[in-house]
Amino acid sequence: MGKTLIIAEKPSVATDISKVLGKFKKEKEYFESDEYVISSAVGHLVEIKAPESAEPKRGKWKIENLPVIPDHFDLLPISRTEARLKVLKKLLKRKDVDDVINACDAGREGELIFRYIMEWAKVKKPIKRLWLQSMTPQSIRAGFTDLRTDESLQPLSDAAHARSEADWLIGINGTRALTSFNSQGGGFRKTTVGRVQTPTLSILVDREEEIGRHVPVSYWEVFGTFGVAAGEYEGRWMNEEFKKPSEAPENLKLNDLKAERLWNQEQADAIVAACEGKQGTVEQTSKPSKQASPLLYDLTSLQREANSRFGFPARMTLNVAQALYEKHKALTYPRTDSRYLPDDYIETVKETLTNLKSTSLGSHADYILSNNRVTPSKRIFNQAKVSDHFAIIPTGVIPKNLKEEEEKLYQMVSQRFLAIFFPEAVYEITTRITRVEEHAFKTEGKVLKEAGWLAVYGKKPGQAGGEDELVTVSADEKAKVVDVRAEGSETRPPARYSEATLLSAMEGAGKFVEDEELRQAMSEKGLGTPATRAQIIENLIREQYLQRDGRELKPMPKAFNLLETIEVMKIPALASPETTGGWEYKLKQVEQGELSQGAFLKEIESLTSDIVESVRGFKPESVEVYETDLIDPLKGGRLIATLQDYRSSDGALVIPKAIAGRVLAMEEIRELLAEKKVGPLDGFMSRRGFPFSAILKFNEKYEVELDWGQNDEDAGAPPDFSDQEPLAMHPSGFPIYETPNAYVSEKMKDDGKLPVWRLSRNMLSQTIEKEQVIKLLQDGKTDVMNGFVSKKTKRPFKAHLILKNDGGVGFEFPPRAPKKKATKK
Question: Which of 85, 383, 617, 742 satisfies CB 3.0 to 4.6 Å to 45 for a cystine?
């Protein structure tokens, strides 16, 4: 009888499975027993290959080659993991391997990783699916006794393929079309778009524009300090007849209108004058208020709270939760969108609570078990609200030697898990109205009477909640006005998104949708999935559409430019949460077998063609111009904005919005107008895709030009090195000179704007000394330099710089030192 090959998603999972099944011999890249062979991927090993017609040289993406809509999608090994792919192919081709078990992560992406491996290897052997909700030995054994059939997972496979191919079609075609358009004015201006990332960016840009439009409006509130026998208390004036109107006045929003606010100071001062030195009567009501514990965590709610409490980026929370699931076996599968447990999970929960009795939260677990609090409840156990995975809870395995961030996250999940089995918390809410003349002042107090689930978080009865506990007032006692004052303030703009609030917006993207039916559909699925939202945010930051500013996410100039371009090109679907949320909903239908993969992709293909045709047929001169607050330094008057530049009404002054692939910030343009120069600025990109830095200056004709760092009077003109000896000769025969910012050729390109050859003094945080430049030009390679820092991973690395065949500069990485063999004792 032949053997079964088990393919896990990561090596650590393969190791765990081998330990549970037992009796394995460890080979270099796999485990083997009499019955099984176990190996693993290392995440994605295969990706969709772009056809040759869509692979022009770097910086030469042409719209003439678009759209790319292949009849079938060829697959290409990912170069950095190709060796692992070859190992799996060899194992799959073994004659003694009769069938295969897919043990990749239980979800859409895990399914795709496995299916792409099988398709690339061109192996057709019987398949079964291991579906794990947690990585404990008990769960692994249970998974092997209940292997799923390949047929039952086919709809999930279809949805995985549909998602991958849709993202490829939109990403490849949209990115290349817009990059081609934006690179027409010089440089290589990469403009990435995506099925989910661009609508997400739209949400952030809309909020930022709302902040920019905000006009502060002054308002006043009146506060009183009142004295009674037991002490003093504060109250705030309120209009008892206030009713929120259906529409807000100009420059105000409905949320700005509150019973406590007065919109002119005279009214506030009149109330102060009427109440000073007076006495008031007191009315008071108290009533209990019950508060249930929050639901269990899904991934999005876990990421939100970890960001709010600890400042964890969403990606970090996912990675920590994945480590607690995979490495420590302490949490269930984290990439879930459910906040409920299966109906048959009651006994498992009791076992988990029994194990938690040995931890610092043990007294709470003991209370739950002793009082028989684990009972059927649709708020906790609800099979109808469990899709592929259930809520994130502890497994009962007590982890040891956790890192600080792992300990924080594990504690969060454990407390939430325990809290949901506790009774409601009970507050007593007291509302006190102090009347002085005809004016009412409101005071509220909130006191915890029964801790309930809040006991898990250390709360005790008697503690004040919200405002402080109120001093008592006797029956019929008068309250003396000790102090009364008017305080002025201004309405505030909406807050920028943090990762926590952006994750909520992505999850609840239906609120941005006008269509009622689609909004209802999107209440179940928003933008992206819990597993992908964190990566979307990281991608937007990496592509310089966003930057982190403390805990805030701030759109950069490139983001505004992209959304403006999409708007004027009339491609709303590319940035619409409504469209993308609808696709996510349809992917779920594919996953459930209610919609075919082909029908979904037909819609995506049609949209892809529309996007390319909108870019191809776009005429910049057709865009309506608008006036800005920028002042023309030549003739006065305001500059007008077009899609691509800011210019004077007569066209004598033109400032491009983007130069050499870099979108200019408004602050930089203001400085350029005021000082006639700005910089040096980083982030410019040559046509061959190489980054450089430079100063922007006006020349004598008030044309904007790049200054390479030579003499100020020569800014924007070809460099003058007549009084300077060249460092060395380029192999092509022209001299290379030194400037403050770079090493450049005197020879300029045909347009006279950029030198034929240029190497920045600083590359990826590494200073390039002139001795190394000489070595590069003479020998074709520098010494190994240790100070480079990757833009993508932020990790340091060492490399040679090499002179490539086309005259450009690239990296060559030194060979890794061989691993030391363990010495036998």
Answer: 85
How is residue 609 written in tokens? Answer: 């063609």
Catalytic annotation, pick one of 116, 297, 333, 737: 333
**184 burial via Cβ count (<10 Å: 0-12, 13-18, 19+):** exposed
Reference 36, options 114, 94, 116; nearest CA is 94
Going by C-alpha positions, the residue among 76, 74, 24, 68 that lies closest to residue 45 is: 76
* Backbone phi, psi, residue 489, to 5°: -155, -175
pLDDT in tens, 763-812: 777 888 888 999 998 888 999 998 887 755 567 788 889 887 767 788 88
Model confidence pLDDT, tens digit, residues 136-154: 888 899 999 999 999 999 9
Angle, CA 604 vertex, CA 602 and CA 607 arms, to 5°: 110
26 pLDDT above the threshold of 70: yes
pLDDT number for residue 511:
57
Task: Provide the token pair at 422.
Answer: 């506790």
Give one DSSP letter per residue of 563-592, joined into a string.
HHHHHHTT-GGGT-HHHHHHHHHHHHHHHT
**Is it true that the peptide bond before 294 is cis, omega within 30 degrees of 0?**
no
Report cis status (omega within 30 of 0) of the bond before 680: yes
pLDDT at 691: 65
How many percent of the chain have pLDDT more than 90?
Answer: 48
Is 333 part of the annotated catalytic residue set?
yes
Name the residue with higher pLDDT: 114 or 677: 114
Taking each helix axis from N to C end, the angle separating 530-542 and 197-213, rounded to the nearest 10 degrees, works out to 60
Give 664's pLDDT tier (boundaries 50, 70, 90). Answer: confident
For 276, residues 6+ apart whose C-beta sits below 8 A from its C-beta are: 481, 484
**Helix, strand, coil percentages, rounded to 5, for the chain:** 35, 25, 40
**Cβ-based neighbour number of residue 338 at 10 Å:** 21
pLDDT tens-digit map of 108-140? 889 999 999 999 999 999 999 999 888 888 889
Give the per-residue SS3 of 249-303. Answer: CCCCCHHHCCCCCECCHHHHHHHHHHHCCCEEEEEEEEEEEEECCCCCECHHHHH
Whole-prediction pTM value? 0.74
DSSP category for residue 511 = G
Report the candidate in 54, 67, 62 with the shortest Cα–Cα distance to residue 184: 62
Task: List, in order, residues 6 or more apart from 35 with CB less than 8 Å away.
Answer: 3, 4
Q: Under a CB-based contact definition with an 8 Å cutoff, are residues 503 and 300 in contact?
A: yes
